[in-house]
Amino acid sequence: MRRFLQIFLVLRCLALGAGEIERLEVFPQTINLASKRSHTQLVVTGWLPNGEPRDLTGEAKMTSSNTQVAAISNGIVVP
Predict the structure, then answer these.
(1) Which residues contact 24 (CB under 8 A, 6 or more apart)?
(2) DSSP-assigned letters across all residues of the chain
(3) Is the entire prediction scored with pTM above 0.85?
(4) What is the pLDDT along the chain (79 residues), one digit of tens a residue?
(5) Is 30 exposed, middle or buried, given 0-12, 13-18 or 19+ CB atoms closer than 10 A?
(6) Cβ 39 vs Cβ 78: under 8 Å
């Protein structure tokens, strides 16, 4: 049985200003935590109106919607 998890991101884009981010992408889009030792690093990219990407991983606050399925610490997802 698969369990699904939502990851919530709160960005504090102090240097860029919240209005400057046109879209956000989180990579990878799918996470498979097959064992207790599995882990996945998340990367958050913000795209500016001029098409320039910005790495916002360090500025993103990530939380798990179900900590019994997975936890997130410093952008790393673990079971």
Answers:
(1) 9, 11, 44, 45, 46, 47, 56
(2) ------EEEEE--TTT-GGG--EEEEE-SS----STT--EE-EEEEE-TTS-EEE-GGGEEEEES-TTT-EEETTEEE-
(3) no
(4) 455 555 555 554 444 554 588 888 889 888 888 888 989 999 989 888 889 998 988 888 888 888 888 888 888 999 8
(5) exposed
(6) yes
Distance of CA 29 to CAs 45, 49, 50, Å?
A: 12, 22, 24
